[in-house]
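FAQ

Q: What does a record look like?
A: Structure on top, sequence underneath. For example:
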């Protein structure tokens, strides 16, 4: 009797083990095992599991979504230009050869004052022109000497010679001297002077260089007075812009106005920097976030909260549960250089605004 009971017990134990392991779903248990490891990981449904300790190390910060009406903005491509009132260009009025000024040739970054001689341009004359000029100067010199002697004789006979003859001789002598000075000056070097005070932004001359008339040899700017020229492709924007900022910064721009004629298919818009602390150089390409008077509804967020998913869509990470984050696809419009307005979010959602890039990299 006891033998039959022992055999029956062994059979029941074997059946129980078979029922416990034969139909077990090992795949369903994997997330539980993975989560128990307390490591950041991406879940099969696309969400991301981040333990509390890891959240503190990554310095994850969130913001409760709140829908607001903000001015609509447009992003414009532009570049830095000089203020025409405080900047200037130095050009030669004649073709010739460059020679250094009293302080040598200035280089980029040199401070100059208005009226300071930067360089000289010796006129480019052929041998025939040079000989003709010297011959004319010699002829005028000879005529001047004769006129001086004639005037001296007339003054000796002032008692018998009419006064008008003496005055005519004096006038002729004065005219010859003026012609002589003009020829001497015309054959001399042209002084290139700074039109404004500022800093040499660019210099394209060296000693002995031959230049043509109207070549731009120096550009002078005042670093404290720079402007931004941006390009617009919609004429409506000219009268609908209210202000602007530089992309990626808090630098405010003052909108001055736009052109009324197209240039290369676009309308140039001018902005002035409201501060002198922004380090910019002439010709530097920049992006301008221009604010319009029209408003748009959405959730204002820092630009750092928006990242790209695998499909190259704009997403933000929603703090769904204590240790779970979910990606939400949004449409974004820039507000200024550091903020955007996101559409597609519900008010009250907790949005990651710091370390969103790190969460997006978890696999």
């Amino acid at each position: 009797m006891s033998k039959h009971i022992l055999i029956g017990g062994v059979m029941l134990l074997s059946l129980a083990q078979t029922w416990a392991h034969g139909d077990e779903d090992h795949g369903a248990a994997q997330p539980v095992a993975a989560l128990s490891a307390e490591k950041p990981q991406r879940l099969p449904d696309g969400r991301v599991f981040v333990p509390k300790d890891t959240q503190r190390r990554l310095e994850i910060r969130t913001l409760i979504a709140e829908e607001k009406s903000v001015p609509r903005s447009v992003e414009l491509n532009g570049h830095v230009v000089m203020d025409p009132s405080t900047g200037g260009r130095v050009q030669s009025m004649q073709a010739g050869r460059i020679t250094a000024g009293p302080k040598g040739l200035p280089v980029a970054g040199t401070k100059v004052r208005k009226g300071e001689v930067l360089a000289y341009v010796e006129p480019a004359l052929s041998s025939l022109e040079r000989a003709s000029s010297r011959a004319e100067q010699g002829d005028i010199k000879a005529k001047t000497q004769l006129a001086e002697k004639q005037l001296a004789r007339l003054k000796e006979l002032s008692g018998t010679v009419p006064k008008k003859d003496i005055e005519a001789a004096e006038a002729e002598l004065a005219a010859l001297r003026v012609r002589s000075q003009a020829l001497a000056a015309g054959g001399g070097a042209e002084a290139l002077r700074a039109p404004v005070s500022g800093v040499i932004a660019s210099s394209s001359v060296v000693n002995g260089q031959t230049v043509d008339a109207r070549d731009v040899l120096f550009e002078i700017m005042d670093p404290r007075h720079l402007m931004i020229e941006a390009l617009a492709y919609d004429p409506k924007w000219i009268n609908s812009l209210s202000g602007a900022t530089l992309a990626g910064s808090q630098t405010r721009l003052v909108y001055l106005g736009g052109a009324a004629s197209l240039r290369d298919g676009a309308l140039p818009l001018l902005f002035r920097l409201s501060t002198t602390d922004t380090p910019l150089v002439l010709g530097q390409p920049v992006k301008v976030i221009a604010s319009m008077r029209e408003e748009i509804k959405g959730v204002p967020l820092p630009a750092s909260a928006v990242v790209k998913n695998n499909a190259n869509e704009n997403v933000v990470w929603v703090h769904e549960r204590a240790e779970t984050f979910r990606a939400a696809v949004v449409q974004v419009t820039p507000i200024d250089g550091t903020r955007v307005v996101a559409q597609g979010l519900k008010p009250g959602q907790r949005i990651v605004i710091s370390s969103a890039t790190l969460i997006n990299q978890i696999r």
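Q: Is there anything notable about this one?
A: The CA atoms of residues 79 and 237 lie 18 Å apart.
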